Amino acid sequence: MDRLSLNQITTKAWSLPEAVAGCAEAGVRWIGLWRDKVAETGVEEAARLLKEYDVGVSSLCRGGFFTGVTPEGSPVDGVAQTRQAIDEAAALGADVLVLVVGGVNGSLKSSRQRVADAVGELAPYAGERGVRLGLEPLHPMQCAERSVLSTVDEALTIALEHPADQVGVIVDEFHVWWDPRIEESIAAATGRIAGFHVCDQKVPLTDTLLGRALPGDGPIDHRHLKACVEAAGYTGPIEVEVFDADLWRRPGGEVLAETIQAYRDHVS
Amino acid sequence: MDRLSLNQITTKAWSLPEAVAGCAEAGVRWIGLWRDKVAETGVEEAARLLKEYDVGVSSLCRGGFFTGVTPEGSPVDGVAQTRQAIDEAAALGADVLVLVVGGVNGSLKSSRQRVADAVGELAPYAGERGVRLGLEPLHPMQCAERSVLSTVDEALTIALEHPADQVGVIVDEFHVWWDPRIEESIAAATGRIAGFHVCDQKVPLTDTLLGRALPGDGPIDHRHLKACVEAAGYTGPIEVEVFDADLWRRPGGEVLAETIQAYRDHVS
């Protein structure tokens, strides 16, 4: 239980104050924050609540969109927005800022180059503020719209160009469980893993964004992947991060209780 | 135009006789057949029509499901069914039988081993009948239900255990375009490519099965991938294979005309 972190998207019905208090009450020591929820409460008040309830921030989600376009197709200055997100992460005491790097804009190759360039521009800025950038490869079904980084290997290649305390990779099971190279990719990322996110995949998979479930209801071998990231030196918080419309409709307290049970039964 | 092949799923409204006649009329020399359409017409009659209209079979779709379960979750003897499919391919004069290997049943690792074992069992049988097995990696979003082979690399690893005339790999753009290793994977598959299927991906991608479009309407660089497979020695038919509910509702002749135009504009 010491390592369990509630990624607050899982309990979407809860505000940030409710989620922080809910974690404290349930004995969950970590929380993964989202910027829209932080904005509702305000950064200072959020930081105060985290301190009051003694809940640590495993990560802040998210910066990125370096290819210059949102998933909806609008232009965006991802570098500028990510600078703000780095400042916010520092103010919240979050060690890690999760990056969703952005989808295809122009060619796939040039999109990937823009991502590498943006990380190069931002890494020192993050390092100065004590925030580690967490490059999160997303599932290939989200390549066109959200992330031209699809594998741990590919994220690691970019991370390795920078100091380990400035850039790491996030291993999110939903995005990478299918990868035939996942074991060797995680091993290659020793010392570079900045986060481990768990959930399951719904079967059949009918939704490209909301096809997640609590651990235990799908094809992912959580203990195997947990052993892989631990062998690669990662002993930090483990976020349970579930995008699921049914869970989102339910009270946060109920969802957190089930999250804790699923974590005990299938992950820890 | 010499290399264009109509995968008949693209013109789903057409029966096999309509599709074969339609190809001949439009000057399309190749067709990719599906077993359900062949069954409606009968193998002998289908073979007769192909000869009469002088249309070659670029591939027969499909054998596989070696992990013992259908996408709907029913038990299936994939090896026995694939033997029948190999016989059918031989009777139709199809050089290649496309394999969709099956989804996760038990662990991912054991599922992949079952696939490798099944290919080992079937390769000599196929070789004796002049049919090449085409291992088709499917998009990772179809890993749980349809194919534990997700990358060209992984399919190639299995193919290389057998003679090149018995087992090859199918490169279908929709499934592999996002792969950061696709160029080197295709290069490694020199002499092993048994088919090249083109289409585009819809953006946003909202359906895991029907998210395809005619070439030109998505993020895939067809001429780049075509150059890659050609550099790897593949000079055979190029199938346009589109699963799209809107296309399927329209008359086959219209769809084929658009297919030819899209192929000319974006592929050839």
From TrEMBL, chains A, B:
<dbReference type="InterPro" id="IPR036237">
    <property type="entry name" value="Xyl_isomerase-like_sf"/>
</dbReference>
<keyword id="KW-0413">Isomerase</keyword>
<dbReference type="GO" id="GO:0016853">
    <property type="term" value="F:isomerase activity"/>
</dbReference>
<dbReference type="InterPro" id="IPR050312">
    <property type="entry name" value="IolE/XylAMocC-like"/>
</dbReference>
<feature type="domain" description="Xylose isomerase-like TIM barrel">
    <location>
        <begin position="23"/>
        <end position="264"/>
    </location>
</feature>
<protein>
    <submittedName>
        <fullName>Xylose isomerase</fullName>
    </submittedName>
</protein>
<dbReference type="InterPro" id="IPR013022">
    <property type="entry name" value="Xyl_isomerase-like_TIM-brl"/>
</dbReference>
<dbReference type="Pfam" id="PF01261">
    <property type="entry name" value="AP_endonuc_2"/>
</dbReference>
